[in-house]
Amino acid sequence: MPLGEFALIDRFFRNCGSRRDTRVGIGDDGAVLTPPAGHELVAVVDTLVEGVHFPPQSPARPIGHRALAVNLSDIAAMGATPAWALLAITLPRADEDWLGEFAAGFGELARAHDVQLVGGDTTSGPLTVTVQVLGVVPRGEALLRRGGQAGDVVYVTGTPGDAACGLALLQGRLRTPATARATELDTLRNRFLFPEPRLAAGVRLRGVASACIDVSDGLAGDLGKLATASGCGARVEITQLPLSESLLAVAGRAAAEHFALTGGDDYELCFTVPPALAPALGGLPCTAIGRLTTGRGVAVLRGDSVIEFSHSGFDHFAA
Amino acid sequence: MPLGEFALIDRFFRNCGSRRDTRVGIGDDGAVLTPPAGHELVAVVDTLVEGVHFPPQSPARPIGHRALAVNLSDIAAMGATPAWALLAITLPRADEDWLGEFAAGFGELARAHDVQLVGGDTTSGPLTVTVQVLGVVPRGEALLRRGGQAGDVVYVTGTPGDAACGLALLQGRLRTPATARATELDTLRNRFLFPEPRLAAGVRLRGVASACIDVSDGLAGDLGKLATASGCGARVEITQLPLSESLLAVAGRAAAEHFALTGGDDYELCFTVPPALAPALGGLPCTAIGRLTTGRGVAVLRGDSVIEFSHSGFDHFAA
User: Fold this and answer.
1) Looking at the structure, do residues B94 and B230 belong to the same domain, yes or no?
2) Prediction ipTM score
3) Is residue B179 packed enough to be buried (19+ CB in 10 Å), middle (13-18) or exposed (0-12)?
4) What pTM did the predictor assign?
5) Span B79-97, pLDDT tens digits
6) What secondary structure letter does DSSP report for A54?
7) Any CB–CB contact under 8 A between B40 and chain A?
8) Confidence of residue A309 (pLDDT cuts 50, 70, 90)
9) Which among B3, B41, B316 has CB closest to A123?
């Protein structure tokens, strides 16, 4: 027997995620929230569409995880701490098993970062998930895309390219070498399915990074947006890219570099730091990959040669 | 030539709506907002799906208006004042004419209520529009669904039923009498296409209404939710329903009553007031239609008889 909308919300989402001290959460016309004194509010929104952001018939648990993770990644890029989420989910039909798995993926990540689900809307239609996250940041300390200056060092967290390679594996677009190990393949697939938003890194970067962006559409393209917003160009030294052992083993160096520069879905942070502040990054898992310049656009260099690469990021609707 | 996602956002949405004193709006990973001191934040989200919430091939301007209006209606029901909106729009293709009309409908209503569009996400896929609105309300003054008590008078603003009749007209589901005037038909269609959120009424009801809900799924069903949240039942006197002249002329009394009780899409406010506070409503366009009771559920009465009606509201996924 199909569940009604209200029963669905109640069963799967009322206690999904963390419990915070919130005056009114799910169950009224709106949530009533109290941001802490001395803080600004950071609001982000991102949508996942079946067949665009994940393959048709994908399992529900990673969809729930990713729908929240891509938003938490935006919160991380602002140097903020997440607090509340709203979920708008459109489903072809109310499949209880699917919803249970979706809520498990969403809820586990929400609890890990103390995020409370405080509202939502459930509608019937083609599978689409839109999440809004509200975070808080001490007044004036948000990390922006603008603020970088020529000479600042460009860093990226983690190992970009893994997720794009994982997606290629999931879609059967990549011929895997016979030497690839199952654990390497699993690692790459899971980097696409269960991205980990770099919230701790974002908080560490307050007062240190001059500009910051999360890498969702490809490192080169997203760095280009940061550089443009900062009124700069950027230079990336391709031999400095932090490529994971799994990525190199499965894709080989040339494809690995391409995935890392253009692949998207990494949800790492790309940020710039004035050279004098670089020591403040001690212990943060990040790698210097280049510099902001007085030019325009992103130049990818191998030694003294500028590399051509086929596109600079994933742009919906582009020709 | 198709526009890229970033060009689209820039062209149609960067200056859509009001300009407020916002530290960071569209163009970074998130918006940075400063809620006023002494206030709580109210967060709402609602989705419109083509073929579910509006007919396929609907013109874009009313879709833009309605996508914002249904959210502002939730803000009104909380007694809050809207401030910021985020827009997640999924489109089969980037049709510039369509986007221009959509942004015009959204922007006109946003400017009328001083709402700034501060963020969004544009993706390709089946037509789905999700809007989040953030509003503010003086601390402790939000109107909730709970709080009504047996004996409180039940009110509704405006003339419910018009929008549901307008939708029936748009869908060709209603045979219109030869005597129906074009202006009456237009009035009803526009009540569906361009609902006016009752924000001024919501603010007036602070400190007066004991409970409040907006009427999106049908008056009887939504009153039932308010009554349940308040631990009460409710009684509605059908002859007290404020039916518009247009609705009566086009639908006749029996269908008009049915549209008003069950039709949905009204975006009026249904609220309860202790009898002693009723004089505070002076001048507010609203009508007393019944009482909260010590029972359970909603009883619709005509004099001493309980009326049967076919369903209590629109519930996605219900059998």
Assistant:
1) no
2) 0.86
3) exposed
4) 0.90
5) 999 999 999 999 888 788 9
6) B
7) yes
8) low
9) B316
